[in-house]
Amino acid sequence: MSPEQAVTLVGHAISVILLMVSVLILPSLVVGLVVAIFQAVTQVNEQTLSFLPRLLVTLLTIILAGHWLLQEITDLFLFVFSAIPVEVG
User: Fold this and answer.
1) Which of 24, 34, 43, 72 has its CA 20 to 30 A from that of 81?
2) Which regions span the lipid bilayer (predicted)?
3) Range of the domain at 14
4) Per-residue model confidence (pLDDT) at position 82
5) What count of Cα atoms within 13 Å lies in the side-chain half-sphere of residue 50?
6) What does the alpha-carbon distance between residue 4 and residue 10 come to, in Å, rounded to a whole number?
7) Is there a domain that residue 83 lies in?
8) How far from chain centre, in Å, is Cα 56?
9) How many domains does the chain have?
10) Helix (H) or strand (E) holding 37
């Protein structure tokens, strides 16, 4: 395997991982920001108030995007294993 092929494979894997993580993290980040603004306005400093909505949004995102996330990781897995005979032989 040449260095260019290895870099391409690792770059593809990292882009898939970043895409998957961003799908899970961005909705939680937005809800956390909204809750933080609400807490700043009302001066309520309760830790569970910021944790529970983010947890629920993350779980809802996993439920809604789970099929797509699994498909993406499966495609990456198949791409890597289909490239093994080409790269070794």
Assistant:
1) 24
2) 12-39, 51-70
3) 3-71
4) 86
5) 16
6) 10
7) no
8) 16
9) 1
10) helix 3-42
